[in-house]
Amino acid sequence: MTSRKTQRGVALLIVLWGCTLLAIMLGGFAALARTEGLQARYQFAQTRAHYAAEAGLMRAIAGLQTPDPQGRWIADGRMYTFAFDNAVVNITIVDEDGKVDLNAASADVLSGLFKAAGVDDDRATKLSAAVQDWRRPGDAALPNGAKRPQYEAAGLDYGPRNGPFATVEEARMVLGMDAKLWTVIAPAITIWSGRERPNTEHAQPLALAAIPGLGAGGADAILAARAQAGGAAVAGGNGVTHTIHAEAILDDGTRSSLTSTIRLRGIRSGSQPYAILRWREGDTE
């Protein structure tokens, strides 16, 4: 009799342990299913936001190419906003000819850029010369410049390209450049304008301040006149190469952004109306 009771107790204990184990397993499966569901919703929202940002890029290209001068979007950094698929898309366009071209800018413009970014005169002169030596063929350094011996003396295992900058990011490697300065100047530099100095019709404040003789007062006057004109002064005057930043914000707060540098080719039958020169997703440089 005692043996039967013991067997029943053991059996009951096994059943209870089995039920507990099943409950734990079901709870784990439920938590896993919930997590996967949340991840799927997040990924779906991110995908929606991403394609809304891409739609913003396409909308910007259309705005730049519209034949109506009054409806044409202006590439001077102002913000355009439109709604797309339950998302608000904010777009800014900057004409590359309003930036400082690493491959074409004069020594004065380069040093002016670095001074405007907060660098002292001596360092600005050296950085300007180092940029010129990076893009200039030959092994002889300019006064205050930097060729391979100067890079080696600084403990670097590389030297200048001795040819044009291939990317904007290559400027990070110029002797004397640091992360803080790069962050400041990155939005104001380009390799696609071919201009000795920025075009004042499109240039942003930092690029304007780089222009010799213009000064802070002249830059402020240009920006004020541009704002007062509401874009009329530059309508139709956009160049062909632009950097477009598009950020899409869904109604639940999900965000996605992209930045692309594009070159317009005009609207011709059988041809792509633009070429992508640079593409970055997210807000990091």
Write a structural description.
- The structure is a single chain.
- A hairpin with a 2-residue loop joins strand 1 (76-84) and strand 2 (87-95).
- 43% of the residues lie in helices and 18% in strands.
- A five-stranded antiparallel sheet has the order 1-2-5-6-7, with helices on one face. The chain has a two-stranded parallel ribbon with strand order 3-4.
- It has seven helices and seven strands; from the N terminus they run αβββααααβααβββ.
- It has helices spanning 2-65, 107-116, 121-135, 148-153, 179-185, 205-209, 215-229, and strands at residues 76-84, 87-95, 100-101, 189-190, 241-250, 255-264, 274-281.
- It is an alpha+beta fold and 285 residues long.
- It starts with a helix and ends with a strand.
- The chain has a domain at 100-197: Orthogonal Bundle (Ribonucleotide Reductase Protein R1, domain 1).
List the helices and strands and how they pair.
Blueprint: H1 2-65, E1 76-84, E2 87-95, E3 100-101, H2 107-116, H3 121-135, H4 148-153, H5 179-185, E4 189-190, H6 205-209, H7 215-229, E5 241-250, E6 255-264, E7 274-281
Parallel strand pairs: 3-4
Antiparallel strand pairs: 1-2, 2-5, 5-6, 6-7
Protein name: General secretion pathway protein GspK
GO cellular component, one term: plasma membrane
Domain T2SS protein K first SAM-like: 95-192
